Structure formats: C-alpha cells, structure tokens
Amino acid sequence: MRHTVDFLVIGSGIAGLSFALKVAPYGKVCILTKADASEGSTKYAQGGIAAVMYDSDSFSKHIEDTLVAGDGICDKEVVEMVISGAPERIRELVNYGVNFDKDGSKFDLHREGGHSEFRILHHKDNTGEEVERGLLEAVRNHPNIELKENQFAVDLITQHHLGQTVTKRTPDIECYGVYVLNGDTHQVDTYLAKVTLLATGGVGNVYTTTTNPITATGDGVAMVHRARGVIRDMEFAQFHPTVLYNPAEKPAFLITEAMRGAGAILKDMNGNEFMQKYDSRLSLAPRDIVARAIDKELKMAGASHLYLDARGIGKKELINGFPTIYAKCLEIGLNITKEMIPIRPAAHYQCGGIAVDKKGESSIHNLFAAGECSATGLHGGNRLASNSLLEAVVYAHNSAMEAIERAKTVSICQQVPDWNSEGMVFNEEMVLITQTRKELQEIMSNYVGIVRSDLRLQRAFNRLNLIFRETDDLYNRSVVTEELTELRNLIACSYLITKQAMARRENRGLHYSIDLL
Ligand code: FAD
Ligand code: SIN
C-alpha cells in the first residue's frame, strides 16, 4: 500500500512523540512504531531529566558538568543551547500532562554521577514511564496524529530508489519517505512524506548484557548508513555502572544513579569501598570512570559482581524514593534496606549515531533525527547522566521548528516505486538468525566492550566481516522479516562502533584501549 503524509515519524519514545505534538498543528502526522506504542527505552528511564530550574543552580554549572563528563570533545555551542533551552522544554512536558515529583511548590530534585548540583527532575524512580504515559495520552488525543503499532521501518527511500547512483560523496541525497514492513499484512508498504524524523532509539542489543529493551537494535542508524548518510561518535558506547546482578534477566534491571546521589556506596566483594582508588568524586564520578573502575575490580577479583550498599539511605527514604527498585529486589528475595545490592555494569546508551546539525537535520535532506539515534555533539566522549531525555526534547523541538518551515516548500516525490520482493524466498531456518545474533553479541562484549585493545578490535572487525557477508547473502534472497532486518542493522551498528573505535587513536571518554595508555 502507498501512504502519503506531511510529517512521518519513526519511533514512539520521548523524541518521536514530542516532535509529533509540535508539528501536528501544521499538517498530517503519522507515527510508526515497530512494537507496542509504549515500548522503547523511554519507558524504562528511572533517574529523570536534568534541568536548571532554580537560582540555587546555574546554567554555567550544568554546562561545565556536561563538558567535563564529555571529556573535552562536546560541541560547546550545542551544550549551551540544550542546557539553556531545558526549562522551557520542561514546562512543555508539564503542559502535555507529565507529572514530576514536587516538594511543596517546587520540583523535588535528585543528584546523579558527574552533577555538581541536585538538578534531576523525576517521578519517583520511574520517570520514563510517566513521561511516556503523559506524551502518549496527548498524542492519542490529537486529531492530526495517526499512531500505528507493529510497523517496522526497513529502509529510507532516496534517489537510489529512482535508479540513480548514490554514494557517500553524492552531495544532495534526499529522503522521500520510508519502506515499512506492515506487521499485520506482512507486506512492505511505501510511506511518502515531505519530512521524515527518525526517533528509533539506541542499539544496546549489540551487547550481551544491556539495560535496553529488545527494540533497541540501531535501526535508524543502520538505515542512514545504508542510505550513505553520515554517522559519527559510535565508539562512545556507554556502559551503566550499576545494573542488578541477576544473570538470566533480559533486559538487565537498572539500579539508578540517583541512588548513589542519595548516598548509596559502591563496595567490593568483601564489603570494602574501592572508588577512592580511582577518583576523588568516589561513587559519584562520571559514568565512564565508575564503569571502568568496576570492570577492573571485577577482573582483578575474578568476580561476577560487586555491591551497591544503599542501607545508609534509611528505610523510609529507600522505600518511598525508590519504590520500583525496592519492589524488584524483594521479588528476587533481596531486602535492600538490610542487604547490599549485587551489581555489575551493562551496555546502556549510544552517544553516537546519525550526525545532525543544530536544527536536527541529518546529512540527508528532509531527514531529521532526534533522541538516542542521533549524534548532536552534546555528549562528546561520555554522556552526563539524565542529559539524554533532555537532549531528546530539545532536539525534537528544534527539528519540529525547521520541519514546519520545510514542509511548506517540499513536495511529495510520486515517482518512487513500490517495494519489489519478486524472486525472494521464505527463510525457514531461524537458527541462522538467532545463532548469528548471539555470536555478534559475544564478539562485541568480549572485544569492543568497556576496555579495548588493538588486537581485540581487529579480531572483532574480521569476525564482523564474515557475519556481515553471510547475513547479507541471506537477506538478498529472503522475503524481508523483522528478525532478519534487525540482525542486519545490529551488524551494521557493530561495524560502525568497531571501525570508529579503531580510528580513534586516543583514550577519550568512553573509548578506552590498553594500547593507548
Ligand atoms: P526510545 O524511547 O528508545 O524509542 C525508540 C522508538 O523507536 C520505539 O518506539 C521503537 O519501537 C521505535 N523503533 C525502533 N526501530 C524502529 C523501526 N525500525 N521501525 C519502527 N519503529 C522503530 N536517560 C535520561 O536522560 N535519564 C534517565 O533517567 C535514563 N534512564 C534510563 C534507564 C534505562 C533502563 C534505559 C534503557 C535508558 C535510560 N536513559 C535515561 C536513556 C533514555 O531513556 C533514552 O536515551 C531515551 O529514552 C531515548 O528516547 P528515544 O525517543 O530516542 O528512543
Ligand atoms: C539512571 O537512572 O542511573 C540512568 C540515568 C541515565 O541514563 O541518564
């Protein structure tokens, strides 16, 4: 089927929903999402959203904290723009119906690693669920927005589909829309749009252990890469220092940094503090430093996990302030008011992604990107905690402002052909996909994880090449499916992470190699 809209949005997390609400008064909006509408990383966010709301804090302090965490390679203008834009975007979220906890008439503010002040707005320890609820409700009430679930974006449509040769050097690549696998009909539909926004989230599933939901397979990044757009900063894969050590559980359950902000302390297997060996900010050092310290302690002790001791926070504050974590731990027989929490790091966030300018536009015309799939320059080498939800709303706003103007001048490209699946066969061997996905995750976890080396990266690169060839071959003769396309996307993102890691010849932020010491 062919569909025509003014604004096409791929993804229904904080970035996609915020953008849709902003452009909706100016045209017909269609949001496509590959799972249930609420599924995505946004729903799982715990800690909250960083913003300077009162005079006790200042933009300059938040800017400085972001620059320090980013290890000297943030885009300063972007940092200033995002942080000074935060209060306005927070007020909009509240107007859409999102509730943040209050202490009297003021927002109750938490603190997390790398922040010099208490500035994290939150809703208990389930902020993301509340943000997603509020935004989805507003979207569903808007007459100009159509939200379609189980619609899997497969590929961007560009001049390539009109028979023209498109390479990385083609100066004016344009996006005309997206080919989408319809989960109900199993046919590939053609969506044509004046403006397209990718808001497809992260890529945590390239690793074995991740906090990310199963939807985080880097689809947007891989689509732009295939369409010859620019992808940057992929070497900066962020590992969260503290997820609950509960090996069988997928995704890994996060223990928010806000708990360390409230006084919880990292301890080794013997119950001793160890962060004094690594950083004067102790358990509240930026994430890259804490994750590396834990990785080192784990390797030295040959241990599977360390501990987070939250007992000092006090029973009442723990139960009221962190009800989700308290209940989750009780579920596995752990009373965190009396026992230490077993923790380890897990893949959490991709700082890199689709390169965008300050207006959110990618290197491909009329294609915008916002949220975790984009790379704006805000995070530099390492994202500061709770700056991700903030970046998503600021760039959804910037993209929307530009998209509204753009839609006035762009016309729909009607010459685009429909998807051709002639001669394709059904792949009946799921093991070809499931086993390759496991192999890929093992390669990335063992060779391109928290600590890297030249040899590990080269090994990963060689093995990824083989997996890429086998999977591409399978893809080229198979009827398109979500599982196979996701695998293809995971391979493309793994390749980009590894290649960009090999190219960075310095230890910077999240990229750390023993050969660059
Ligand atoms: P998502 O919310 O991940 O949404 C992506 C959407 O795209 C989904 O709807 C998905 O189904 C859809 N999609 C993907 N591919 C396709 C496709 N091919 N076709 C159609 N649809 C597709 N950040 C903070 O700032 N503060 C926090 O406290 C915080 N806590 C976190 C806790 C956890 C456990 C996790 C995992 C992340 C946390 N983060 C936090 C990071 C933050 O939540 C994410 O970066 C942010 O929510 C990403 O929003 P998004 O809109 O870009 O993507
Ligand atoms: C957390 O709550 O620790 C996660 C915050 C983030 O990822 O920004």
Helical content stands at 25-40%
Major sheet description: 7 strands, mixed
Shape: globular
Q: Identify the bound ligands.
A: flavin-adenine dinucleotide, succinic acid
Number of helices: 14
Name the structural class.
alpha/beta
The tally of strands reads 19
Quick rundown:
By secondary structure, the chain is α/β, with parallel strands linked by helices.
Keywords:
binds succinic acid; seven-stranded mixed sheet; four-stranded antiparallel sheet; binds flavin-adenine dinucleotide; 517 residues; globular
Note down, in words, how this protein is organized:
The protein has 14 helices and 19 strands. It has 517 residues and is α/β, with parallel strands linked by helices. Strands 1, 2, 8, 9, 10, 11 and 18 form a 7-stranded mixed beta sheet that branches. A 4-stranded antiparallel beta sheet has the order 13-16-15-14, covered by helices on one side. The longest helix is centred in the C-terminal third of the chain and has 24 residues, at 454-477. The mean pLDDT is 97. It binds flavin-adenine dinucleotide and succinic acid (SIN). Succinic acid binds at residues 46-47, 256-258, 349, 385-386, 388.
